[in-house]
Design brief:
alpha/beta, 4-stranded parallel β-sheet, 4 strands
Length: 110
């Protein structure tokens, strides 16, 4: 019996699609302009984010907003290049910028 193979593209596309249907995928238009963890926490609570996964470009890992997010307890940061199914399934909300969305679409276009 032959089984169909599932590529990495298809494997990551399913959880992303699921997050869209559940309305737990959040698109932001850029990083907010604050540097303190307290402000980042208030912003996340205002959006209703629970255990969010922020997908950011590798170049943005040292941005002030991303550094503020690193200090929050239930927030996970993941570089776009390290995107994986396990992290997507573990996150209750997935947050990404429009630039990251475009990079994901380009990476997973078949």
């Amino acid at each position: 019996t032959r089984y169909g193979t599932v590529t990495g593209v298809q494997t990551c596309a399913l959880p992303i699609s699921s997050k869209c249907q559940d309305q737990s995928l959040v698109l932001i238009d850029g990083y907010p302009a604050f540097e303190k963890a307290k402000d980042a926490s208030a912003w996340a609570k205002k959006l209703g984010l629970v255990k969010p996964l922020f997908i950011v470009n590798q170049a943005d890992m040292d941005a002030p907003f991303v550094r503020a997010l690193r200090n929050l307890k239930d927030v996970r940061l993941l570089a776009l290049e390290g995107l994986n199914v396990y992290s997507l399934l573990q996150a209750r909300h997935v947050v990404l910028t429009a630039a990251a969305k475009d990079a994901i679409e380009q990476r997973f276009s078949v």
